[in-house]
Amino acid sequence: MDRFRVDLIAATPNPQQCTYAAMHQDYSESFVARERSNWPDEEHAGEICVKRLLSGGRGHYGPLEHAQIILNVGWFPHSVVQQARTHRVGVSFDVQSMRYTGERICRAADGKIDPEEVFYLRPLGDYRDRYGKRYAYTSEQRSLDLDHCRLSAQRYRDLLRSGFSEEHARGTLPFDYRQHFVVSFSLRAFFHFVDLRSKLDAQLEIRQLCDLMWPHIENWAPQFAQWYKESRMYRAQLAP
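Below the sequence we write its predicted structure tokens.
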């Protein structure tokens, strides 16, 4: 998991003011953009929105849909991509294709890069299955799995070189090849995503994704992030 990363691409520069403006327009007689000089500053706008929209279980999430953040997620396994896109999360994804981006697999097959640069294996340690049964992932088992990844990469390379299409050859690969993707969230969608995927019984890797995304949200919309951390984080209160 030391390869996992999340980088900021772009974000609405004043997300809490944008939310404030949307909320204010709901009940204002005036055209709120003309009153921009009277808007509260970013910090105060966040505090007002939390108080009027969210605190006390109010649940008025609509104005939070206007502010957007775009993140680049890297080196996560395909299983995380599948989980991230499951359920109605209201999020846009563009995911590295395994039809056009298989050269990295061939490089691993040729020994030019570490196989773990393109395939994900869990760290050594003790785990539980979904029913709570404990088991150990040992160095011997992990070594066997890494050998399997190398052989699969070599089979993929050989199929391509013999004329097979990428979409055919990729069927020989282990499920958890790594993928990069770009994802965009509104504030509302982000909080819903974290509700789903940061809860303590979620799978290890997607919880790590939430952990790596979270500092970007704290830096971007700190008053909203503080409210979420105190009110909802890890509580699995779904679908805001």
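The CA atoms of residues 105 and 153 lie 6 Å apart.
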